[in-house]
Write a structure and sequence with these properties.
Blueprint lengths: L1 E6 L1 E7 L9 H15 L4 E8 L10 H9 L3 H20 L4 E6 L3 E2 L1 H7 L3 E5 L3 E3 L13 H9 L1 H9 L3 E3 H7 L4 E3 L1 H16 L3 H14 L6 H13 L2 H12 L5 E3 L2 E3 L52 H10 L2 H6 L10 E2 L2 E2 L1
Parallel strand pairs: 2-3, 3-4, 4-6, 5-7, 6-9
Antiparallel strand pairs: 1-2, 7-8, 10-11, 12-13
Helix pairs in contact: 1-3, 2-3, 5-6, 9-10
């Protein structure tokens, strides 16, 4: 019914209950037992949940559903059944490790609720996901109404739940139901790559970051306080300190001083060669030359530029002359023809 392997900090839990991984009572007990086994191990950071059947998980077991529906105490039995699923999914959601659902086929009803209890979801573009319980006069009672609403907001949750709408994997990614989608033939490799990437990150940081994200979705929880507590806790974590020490040791790249290679030392010069004093040795910076006004020839060193002859045209002309000698105005003013003999109609420029 289930196969679990652990390698390279990734626990791969494969659901293998033909034909569609239906949520029978025995199936729920078996999945809970697998989680128990993993909880006693410390050699994994990511739980990769997948299926080797055509469907990821297609929801309730129809035979058992019929038996509960026909039973005299069917109401209480149905309540207990759904409560069992809720507890199991809440347990998966509360794991300190990161959980990833690889959705290769249909994930409907309780199957999609299982995927929603995971942190990350990657789906085949051809897969179908949704919560169609309203079609049967029921509701997505195993956490679907709550988790989907928190994930995508009440407007989209109403569309999908009240409309009993199922969408393909590509649409699910566009709507935010899953984080990634890809063709089914590429799904296994893509999911494994995501799991490996996350598993390469620090265990304590992953757990604390996950706790902070959960706090953000719970009003009154005090997510900012949770962040402060996590920051304090990680400051003394051995792996965090090792990574920060390595980062700080290699944070200053090799720089050049007077044409020689130097390790560490001063900071690299600011982009554009700022006007402050140069740090880390080296020749002093030359004063920056004041830019010449547009259209004015630069005077040679030691000589003052000859003022070009200018027809006096009153105060307006002098005002334009003063503006033209300002570097800022020269940059911002619109371009004018450089030839004084150009005429436009009857007006001289």
């Amino acid at each position: 019914m289930f196969q679990t392997t652990v390698a390279d900090q990734v626990a791969v839990l494969t659901m293998s209950s033909p034909p569609v991984n239906a949520l029978s009572e025995a199936w729920l007990t078996g999945l809970s037992r697998e989680i128990d086994g993993l909880a006693g191990r410390s050699d994994w950071k990511v739980l990769h949940l997948r299926s080797d059947q055509k469907a990821f998980c297609a929801g309730a077991d129809l035979k058992e559903m019929r038996a509960r529906f026909d039973a005299v105490d069917g109401q209480d039995r149905t309540y207990a059944y759904v409560a069992t699923i809720q507890r199991l999914y809440a347990r998966i959601e509360a794991l300190p490790q990161v959980t990833l659902a690889e959705i290769g086929g249909a994930a409907l009803g309780g199957g999609f609720e299982l995927a929603l209890s995971c942190d990350l979801r990657v789906a085949a573009a051809e897969a179908k996901v949704g919560l169609p319980e309203v079609k049967l006069g029921l509701i997505p009672g195993a956490g679907g109404t709550q988790r989907l609403t928190r994930l995508v907001g009440p407007g989209l949750a109403r569309r999908l739940i009240l409309g009993a709408e199922a969408v393909d994997g590509a649409t699910a990614e566009r709507l935010g139901l899953v984080q990634w989608s890809c063709p089914r033939g590429e799904l296994a490799e893509r999911a494994a790559a995501i799991a490996r990437q996350v598993a390469g990150l620090p265990r304590a940081a992953l757990a604390e970051a996950k706790r902070c994200v959960v706090a953000a979705a719970e009003p009154g929880r005090g997510g900012f306080t949770v962040e402060l507590e996590a920051t304090r806790s990680l400051h003394v974590d051995a792996e965090t300190r090792e990574r920060i020490a390595a980062f700080l040791a290699g944070a200053r790249p090799k720089t050049l001083k007077n044409g020689r290679e130097s390790k560490g030392g001063g900071r690299p010069a600011a982009p554009g060669g700022g006007g402050g004093p140069q740090r880390g040795g080296g020749p002093p910076l030359e004063p920056r030359a004041r830019p010449a006004a547009r259209g004015s020839p630069r005077a040679p060193p030691g000589r003052r530029a000859r003022r070009s002859p200018r027809r006096r045209a009153g105060a307006g002309s002098r005002s334009r002359s003063r503006r033209s000698t300002s570097p800022t105005a020269a940059r911002c003013a619109p371009a004018r023809p450089t030839c004084c003999n150009v005429t436009r109609g009857s007006t001289s420029w």
